[in-house]
Task: structure prediction
Amino acid sequence: MQIGILNETAEHERRVALVPAALRALRESGAKILVEAGAGEAAGFPDAQYAQAGARLIAESGKLLREADLVLCVAPPAILAQGGAVLDGLREGAVLLGLLRPLDEPELARHLAARRITAFALELLPRITRAQPMDVLSSMSTLAGYRAVLLAAEALPKLFPMLVTAAGTISPARVLVIGAGVAGLQAVATARRLGAVVEAYDTRPAVKEQVESLGARFVELPLTAQGAEAAGGYAAAQAEDFLKQQRELLAVHVQRSDVVITTALVPGHPAPHLIDEGALAGMRPGSVVVDLAAPAGGNCAATRRGQTIKLHGVQVIGPENLPAQAATDASQMLSKNFTAFLQHIAPKEELALDLSDEITRATLLTHEGEIMNTAVRERLARIIHEAP
Result:
């Protein structure tokens, strides 16, 4: 099997799917590695390191796609997501593996199926113990939660820790984290390490113990979410009446915080709006909101994807791709996830599609001209139905 590594072309993307250190295990299994020139440069892995690890460097993507049996990508390149030349360079029957945003961009799945490309989307990985070494979302969420706190600390015009100085005592910053998934818990842990007083909120009562184990206070609202946890451990979408009450009750906690970090996402749905303009208006001037849900529309009414705006004296930051800002470590983590998945679906160099296996079945997006994932098919049907 020839495995190809693309040079990522999506905007703001600096990560690479495989780092040079990961090549040995794959080559020992009999695979040959093709790397597009410059693929690892932005992440700190020059071409020379890939060559030394036994990869064959290829100057342009078209040639790599024609030769590779299986192609790894961190994210669908912009041209690929539009059904352009990169995607059309994949030959029929080739395998594509990466973060393909299937519930957000289901049209890509339709195009892949039409090209008879076998595609695996690792966002669809089930959250089971056996799949943990492959869990790219948890890996990247860890980095996003960490970087979000650093962004907030830099933007906030005061310090996070309490300091006792000759000039008096500086009180610690108050941080509220909304959403206690992987990103939220990492944000809690990072803010605590920097010395902030932290509280966190989530619709899932089961995460209370995890929040408190990190030294933060768990915010409990007099609300009962219906089906707060969906399959796979993700938060479930809630009705608008519930969200309205939630916004009103959260506003008290938002307004007494110096920093709010929001991480609430529901796969396949716009991000729930949890902070309205009225809550922002009640925050102290200089306060900061970092909205990790910005690419999905944002948890804050004022969020603008990829922008930092100021409203009522509050900075609202809508980061585009925080894991890519830590491209070296992000690529090393992704590389381990991708390698574990490759060893699962191709244990003896050749692709082995065992649809009785939960991991393979859940992540298989397209195969033999069909969209294999039920949720993606349903999402695509809704989009077609709602189109004018």
Q: What stands out?
A: The mean pLDDT is 91.
